[in-house]
From TrEMBL:
GO terms for molecular function: ATP binding; ATP hydrolysis activity. This is ABC transporter ATP-binding protein. InterPro entries: AAA+_ATPase, ABC_transporter-like_ATP-bd, ABC_transporter-like_CS, ABC_transporter_ATP-binding, P-loop_NTPase. Residues 7-233 form the ABC transporter domain. It is found in: Cell membrane. It is a peripheral membrane protein. One of its GO terms (biological process) is response to antibiotic. Gene3D superfamilies: P-loop containing nucleotide triphosphate hydrolases. It comes from Prauserella cavernicola. It comes from the Bacteria. GO terms for cellular component: plasma membrane. Belongs to the ABC transporter superfamily. The keyword Acyltransferase does not apply. Keywords: Antibiotic resistance, ATP-binding, Cell membrane, Membrane, Nucleotide-binding, Translocase, Transport.
Length: 302
């Protein structure tokens, strides 16, 4: 583990009876990195995060968090880490400001720091609002503010954007970008692949307790070598003519569109331009979701 490593997880295992929740997971997170753990339900993401945070003891394996072992419960680490769990619990009847002041009091945080956190998460105008009257997105932002109020070096976020509407999710993205811009290390789990692709420096894709792939999102997508899909409106081009175009590997047509799959899009697009069929054309390349589905499968997970 180097001095620039914020978190090192080495061959951790955790079972609940016959269920292997975490089965030999290893990874490192650099200081200042935004690291995502992705996976379907039951993949072992939350258990891995709880072990890394020092909330749970693994059956075997080691964790070094900011150079120290988080388990047994390491009180010296607590001021250096921030944790936002899947289910947030607040003190009843307190306003947004009072919630932050109460959390901050545990670490000797000043009122100025509380004001700074309210501004960071966009809740300055809701400071006097009881927590119970905040919207779901506002409560999530308040939860993150509570995890950050003592200015930790590393922040753990477990599905921070779950159940938020698209606007609230995007607002929270801005908050998370600002947190990283302040030099903080972020380790988080999410089900939203588009989110991870935008926010994360690297991701680990987990399933059945194991890491299946780990790299920068763009590199994972590139290594998939998936075909590019060129989509035309139905009737823009006859299927037989589309199959004869240079670079056309597969052609499929439904009631709405004609889709041409290709691994050499440049000559295909040039040929489509010659046929005057570029109006309304869509080009879709592979995404992190394609990588995820390729690795974990498409079956339904309860």
């Amino acid at each position: 583990m180097t001095t620039s490593t914020a978190l090192a997880v080495t061959d951790i295992h955790m079972s609940y009876g016959d269920l292997r929740a975490v089965d030999g997971v290893s990874f490192e997170v650099a200081e200042g990195e935004f690291f995502g753990i992705l996976g379907p339900n039951g993949a072992g993401k939350t258990t891995t995060l709880e072990i890394a945070e020092g909330l749970r003891e693994p059956d075997s394996g080691t964790v070094r968090l900011l150079g120290e072992a988080p388990w047994p419960r390491n009180l010296a680490l607590l001021p250096k880490i921030g944790v936002q769990l899947q289910a947030s619990a607040f003190f009843e009847k307190l306003t947004a400001r009072e919630q932050l002041e109460t959390f901050g009091a545990l670490y000797g945080v000043t009122s100025a720091r509380v004001d700074e956190m309210l501004e960071l998460v966009g809740l300055s105008d809701k400071a006097s609002t009881p927590e119970a009257k905040l919207s779901g997105g506002q409560r999530q932002r308040l939860s993150i503010a509570c995890a950050l109020v003592h200015d930790p070096d590393i922040v753990f976020l477990d599905e921070p954007t779950a159940a938020l509407d698209p606007q609230a999710r995007r607002n929270l993205w801005d908050v998370l970008r600002e947190v990283q811009a302040r030099g903080k290390t972020i380790v988080y789990t999410t089900h939203y692949l588009d989110e991870a692709e935008v926010l994360c420096d690297r991701v680990a894709i987990m399933d059945r307790g194991r890491i299946l792939a780990m790299d920068a999102p763009a590199r994972l997508v590139r290594d998939l070598e998936a075909a590019t899909r060129v989509i035309l409106e139905r009737g823009a081009l006859a299927p037989d003519l589309a199959r004869a175009l240079p670079g056309a590997d597969q052609v499929a047509q439904d009631e709405v569109s004609l889709t041409i799959s290709t691994r050499t899009p440049a000559p295909l697009l040039a040929a489509l331009a010659e046929h005057g069929t570029l109006d309304g054309l869509q080009v879709r390349t592979a995404t992190l979701e394609d990588v995820f589905l390729e690795l974990t499968g498409r079956e339904y997970r309860a």
